[in-house]
Amino acid sequence: xxxxxxxxxxxxxxxxxxxxxxxxxxxxxxxxxxxxxxxxxxxxxxxxxxxxxxxxxxxxxxxxxxxxxxxxxxxxxxxxxxxxxxxxxxxxxxxxxxxxxxxxxxxxxxxxxxxxxxxxxxxxxxxxxxxxxxxxxxxxxxxxxxxxxxxxxxxxxxxxxxxxxxxxxxxxxxxxxxxxxxxxxxxxxxxxxxxxxxxxxxxxxxxxxxxxxxxxxxxxxxxxxxxxxxxxxxxxxxxxxxxxxxxxxxxxxxxxxxxxxxxxxxxxxx
Length: 270
Ligand code: SF4
Ligand code: SF4
Ligand code: SF4
Prior knowledge:
Elements: H1 8-37, H2 54-60, H3 66-70, E1 77-78, E2 91-92, H4 107-111, E3 131-134, H5 150-154, E4 162-169, E5 175-182, H6 192-196, E6 204-207, H7 209-212, H8 223-230
Antiparallel strand pairs: 1-2, 3-6, 4-5
Bound molecules: iron/sulfur cluster (SF4) (3 copies).
One iron/sulfur cluster binds next to helix 6.
């Protein structure tokens, strides 16, 4: 069989084209592998104590893993390759797996070389890794009138971050219920309560702040706070009108001589 005569220019062109096609195939394969491997951080992933706000944290963390190495309880793990793109290699923990033991000397923060874990955090009680939320009242044993109390008892900030609030048990009619109630201002997000919940799936969960907390309604003026701050009435000269009492000329329908509505609801006598 005769070999076709190909000019040197055409041979070079064919070689370059073949190289480019190979490169494209490699790049495409790599992208496909990354896409197949892409996974999100778990929704309940919590950042270590002192972590900056998420965007600032992602910029500051150099993925060195020193905080993970220094954690004596193996609480922290590094996000695997492909986890949420820029979050790959960053530290987090899942409360139900291994909660934060709230070390007094906060070795994870001390190990961070960049300030992604804020060195200003010197009291672990001031950490805000997340907020505990009692997400399932139907299954929480205390909501059924039993005395489980486990989440309350394990809390390192007991009686501040979580309290048991007494409420009437309407089911039995004559017992009390002791409702686990989280106070976000004091909850460190350590996860001890979620880890210890006795149910197969915890009724109390620690969620990242962005999921657990709403933003306050800045446009509402809370009169009682302004009054406290001012130490007196916010508006001077308010006329204190007498409270409306039942009697002739009022809209108390039960009072003889009271207001007579033009329209009466059928069958109500009113
Ligand atoms: S405070 Fe202690 S247990 Fe919690 S993440 Fe840091 S090193 Fe680990
Ligand atoms: S996460 Fe749970 S155990 Fe930890 S401080 Fe908050 S309420 Fe207490
Ligand atoms: S440990 Fe679980 S079931 Fe028990 S009171 Fe707390 S949230 Fe409810």
